[in-house]
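Here is the promised in-class demo. Please do not try to memorize the tokens; focus on the logic of going from shape to residues.
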């Protein structure tokens, strides 16, 4: 299959990952598969409110972010497909691993969002196959409230986007210093951007062309180092 983007060892395929996974591999599977929460729907949670309504800043309402309406998160990722992705890499970090039948893990990665008292989850969990102890990163990510400040705030392109620093931290937890990553559910490309910053190669697969375009643009930009 011809790549949608291919530059400096970073490759994006616009495809259903079922069409590509058997032909690719990497050192580390770093991915955030669909959990079946309907996060790609405008009426997230059935309450008629567009995704990520962010509240007030300095007395002014922050506009709703509309990520469009699509079906990719209507159902939990198929277990057989997830197992295929796992088979392509010796090491795995799977965000939302608590939604899947992946067996026990000695080393879960926990992202504490420092949200305080909200209706959303306080944290997200990544399943790994690492033979290490549990690790936690505390990185605020609550609408317009981010750990980053001022002009360093990250743009949000995707309803389930992870902060760049969290993805980079996840890479750093892997044993044996992996040199390549695979992300079969690429979204807006944060995993590949983190790989680029770390000097790694990577392969991403994304079914939505608009997110392939966003990921390609992000990878084409000069990437600055972060804490």
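The designed amino acids, position by position:
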């Amino acid at each position: 299959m011809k790549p949608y983007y291919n530059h400096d060892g970073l490759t994006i395929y616009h495809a259903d990952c079922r069409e590509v996974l058997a032909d690719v591999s990497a050192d580390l599977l770093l991915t955030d598969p669909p959990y079946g929460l309907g996060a790609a729907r405008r009426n997230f949670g059935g309450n008629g409110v567009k995704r990520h309504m962010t509240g007030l800043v300095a007395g002014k309402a922050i506009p709703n972010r509309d990520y469009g309406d699509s079906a990719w998160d209507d159902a939990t990722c198929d277990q057989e497909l997830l197992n295929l992705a796992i088979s392509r890499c010796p090491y795995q970090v799977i965000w939302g691993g608590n939604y899947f039948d992946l067996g026990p893990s000695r080393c879960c990665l926990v992202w504490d969002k420092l949200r305080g008292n909200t209706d959303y989850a306080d944290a997200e969990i990544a399943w790994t196959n690492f033979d290490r102890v549990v690790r936690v990163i505390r990185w605020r990510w609550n609408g317009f409230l981010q750990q980053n400040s001022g002009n360093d705030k990250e743009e949000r392109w995707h309803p389930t986007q992870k902060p760049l620093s969290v993805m980079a931290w996840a890479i750093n937890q892997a044993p044996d210093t992996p040199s390549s990553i695979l992300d079969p559910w690429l979204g807006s490309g944060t995993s590949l951007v983190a790989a680029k910053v770390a000097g790694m190669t990577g392969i991403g697969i994304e079914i939505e062309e608009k997110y392939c375009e966003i990921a390609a643009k992000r990878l084409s930009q000069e990437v600055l180092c972060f804490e």
